[in-house]
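Lab notebook, design round three. We kept the backbone fixed and only want residue identities now. Task for the bench partner: fill in a sequence for the structure below.
Input structure tokens:
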């Protein structure tokens, strides 16, 4: 059965091109690997993780030559952001899907919020996805493509102390549903809402006691993995042709107990 499933995965996205923002590390890298295994050509966006992006590209192209590319851009720089879609088209001649994965995440208690926090968190989590879809719209419409936004379970149940992040992800969920209507019937737009996947290195959630409490209160009693998110993205791109405007929680049941 595993061999049959792997063969089907290899055909699912064959010949298609997918741009993944924040694709060099962690969840983004897992998404790139999963979609590449399904046959896609992958454009790996990064901002500062150049070496990680190049290592990932080399690894993917060892399996299938000329099937991956790296592109650098600061998503808060609108002119730089506008180079991503042309770069994908220049390299592979087409763009079939966009995965808006790149994200800033850190606490912003109300009393401490600055305009810099707002520009960073809203810029990466909401503004960049909007303008990237706008830039990719014509090509995605031509290809009857798809968009997957990486949201968060805290988009609908805000995380204490993370006010700007939570509202930015809430905006991303609203953007997902709005774009699903705006771009129908030619482009599907969905989101994946992760729960606890990879612990942050700083902030309250870096505390082992806080982490243990989250695991204890999660129905499946564990955190997820980047591969869990990658599998959900693969499903929405390759196996869900009648799904649009949907937010798929991949959180071990955490959202039902928050």
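Proposed sequence:
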């Amino acid at each position: 059965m595993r061999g049959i499933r792997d063969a089907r995965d290899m055909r699912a996205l064959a010949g298609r091109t997918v741009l993944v923002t924040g694709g060099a590390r962690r969840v983004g890298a897992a998404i790139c690997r999963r979609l590449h295994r399904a046959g896609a050509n992958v454009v790996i966006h990064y901002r500062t993780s150049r070496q990680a992006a190049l290592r990932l590209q080399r690894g993917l192209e060892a399996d299938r030559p000329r099937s991956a590319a790296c592109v650098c851009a600061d998503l808060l720089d609108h002119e730089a952001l506008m180079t991503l879609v042309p770069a994908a088209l220049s390299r592979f001649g087409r763009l079939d899907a966009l995965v808006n994965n790149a994200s800033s995440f850190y606490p912003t208690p109300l009393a401490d919020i600055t305009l810099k926090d707002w520009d960073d968190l809203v810029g990466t989590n909401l503004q960049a996805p909007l303008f990237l879809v706008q830039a990719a719209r014509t090509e995605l419409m031509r290809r009857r493509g798809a968009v997957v936004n990486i949201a968060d379970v805290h988009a609908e149940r805000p995380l204490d102390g993370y006010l700007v992040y939570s509202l930015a992800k809430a905006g991303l969920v609203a953007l997902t549903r709005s774009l699903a209507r705006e771009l129908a019937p030619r482009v599907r737009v969905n989101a994946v809402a992760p729960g606890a996947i990879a612990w942050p290195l700083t902030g309250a959630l870096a505390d082992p006691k806080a982490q243990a409490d989250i695991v204890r209160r999660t129905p499946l009693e564990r955190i997820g993995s980047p591969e869990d998110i990658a599998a959900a993205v693969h499903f929405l791109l390759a196996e869900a042709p009648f799904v649009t405007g949907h937010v798929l929680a991949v959180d071990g049941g955490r959202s039902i107990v928050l």
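Keep this in mind before ordering anything: The domain at 2-250 is CATH 3.40.50.720 (Rossmann fold).
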